[in-house]
């Protein structure tokens, strides 16, 4: 669509067409934690999102080493967003390029909300079943 080589890194993070741009902007605006900024999305971050650990720095106390507390909920949210949205971008790219099905910005937003709501609901139900 943008006359660039269809590399996965280009499609997911660099393409200036509306799919990736709209999707990552919506995710950034959804990010509820202002004291932990939304990260710059790279292909490495998407592929390695299972290894991500967002941490909160604890202040140093007396002679103890400075510790880091993992923010489990925030880490889980970022992992879900990265995986689901990368898959959504890939799917939309397939529909537009291979199936030649153009999508408007409104349709992209609707698909984004549907994908995120569905995945977060699954995650919530799964978390409730853990004993």
Question: What can you see in these coordinates?
Answer:
The protein is mainly alpha-helical and 131 residues long. It is built from 5 helices and 2 strands, in the order H-H-H-E-E-H-H. It has helices at residues 8-14, 18-30, 43-47, 72-97, 105-129; strands at 55-57, 68-70. The N and C termini lie far apart (48 Å).
State the helical fraction: 55-70%
Given helix and strand content, the structural type is: mainly alpha
Strand order of the largest sheet: 1-2
**Shape descriptor:** globular
Query: What string gives the helices and strands in order?
Result: HHHEEHH
The radius of gyration is 18 Å
Strand content: under 5%
Taken together, the total number of domains comes to 1
Biggest sheet, in brief? 2 strands, antiparallel
Count the beta strands.
Answer: 2
Instruction: Specify the number of helices.
Output: 5
| Low confidence ranges | none
Q: Compute the separation of the termini in Å.
A: 48 Å
**Mean pLDDT over the full residue set:** 83
